[in-house]
Specification:
With 238 residues, the protein is α+β, with helices and mostly antiparallel strands. 16% of the residues lie in helices and 37% in strands.
Length: 238
C-alpha cells in the first residue's frame, strides 16, 4: 500500500447514519472509486469513535458512535499514522474481516481513519513477478522476466525461452498471464505468451494470418491464433 494521507475539511456530528453529507476532497473520492467493490463496507472513524458507516455486502454491523476497538484497522491506522492493510479476527467486532485503512488529515489535530472492510477471503492485489525460476534437469535458474522472450506450452509442460537458455517452469500460461507485469507480455496463441519487447517484426503468412518474429538471437516465427488477432492489434496499435 502507498503512504497516501487523505484530507477532509470537517467531520459530521456523530449519530448520522449515512455518508452522503461527508465533505470529502478529491483524494478520498478517488480512493473510493479505485478500491471499493460491492462487497465492501466503509467506515469513517474520528479519535475513539466511528462517525460514519456505509454497509456493503460484507457488513460488520458498526453504527455511528460505536467505539474504535483495540486490534481494529482503524485503531492501527490512528496509532501509526500510516496506511494499514491486515486481517482482523472475529474477537474484535464479532465478524472477521480484511481491512484497508487510510489516515486522514483532520481539523484541530484530530486523529481519523477511513477503512474499507472486505471479507478475509477477498482476492488481494498481488505484486507482479519479477523473476521466474526455470529448470534444466536438476539445475534451477532464476530468470528476470525482462530477459524472457516468450513462454511456450507443449508436451504438457511450460517452457521459457531466454538468452540464458530454454527452461521448463512450473507455471501454466494462464497463471503467468495473471502474475507477470502488466503490459509486458501478450498472449498470441493458446501455446504462446510473448514479451512485447522481444518482438522484431509482425507480418502475414501466405494465408493472411499474422506471424510474430522474435528478436536476435532467436529469430523464431510464432503464429498468432485467429482468436488472438484482434487483441494483438489493439495492444500493439496497428
Amino acid at each position: 500500500m502507498t503512504s497516501t494521507i487523505l484530507k477532509v475539511d470537517r467531520f459530521p456530528q456523530v449519530g448520522a447514519s449515512t455518508m452522503k453529507d461527508v465533505p470529502v476532497l478529491s483524494e478520498i473520492e478517488q480512493v473510493l472509486a479505485e478500491w471499493i467493490p460491492p462487497a465492501a463496507s466503509v467506515a469513517l472513524a474520528v479519535e475513539e469513535r466511528y462517525v460514519r458507516y456505509r454497509p456493503g455486502e460484507w457488513d460488520i454491523r458498526l453504527k455511528p458512535g460505536d467505539p474504535v476497538r483495540t486490534g481494529s484497522v482503524a485503531a492501527h491506522v490512528m496509532q501509526s499514522g500510516r496506511p494499514v492493510e491486515t486481517d482482523v479476527d472475529e474477537q474484535v467486532y464479532g465478524v472477521p474481516y480484511h481491512g484497508k485503512g487510510y489516515p486522514l488529515h483532520a481539523p484541530e489535530g484530530q486523529r481519523a481513519a477511513l477503512v474499507v472492510i472486505l471479507p478475509q477471503q477477498f482476492p488481494r492485489a498481488v505484486s507482479p513477478r519479477r523473476v521466474i525460476v526455470g529448470r534444466d534437469g536438476e539445475v534451477w535458474r532464476p530468470i528476470p522476466v525482462e530477459d524472457i522472450a516468450w513462454f511456450e506450452s507443449y508436451d504438457k509442460r511450460t517452457w521459457l525461452h531466454s538468452p540464458q537458455g530454454k527452461f521448463t517452469t512450473i507455471h501454466t500460461l494462464s497463471a503467468l498471464e495473471a502474475q507477470l507485469p502488466e503490459g509486458m507480455f501478450l498472449r498470441i496463441h493458446r501455446s504462446y505468451l510473448v514479451n512485447i519487447r522481444w518482438i522484431q517484426t509482425i507480418s502475414r503468412d501466405i494465408h493472411g494470418a499474422l506471424i510474430v518474429e522474435m528478436r536476435h538471437p532467436f529469430g523464431q516465427r510464432l503464429p498468432v491464433a485467429h482468436g488472438c488477432t484482434r487483441r494483438v492489434r489493439e495492444v500493439l496499435g496497428f
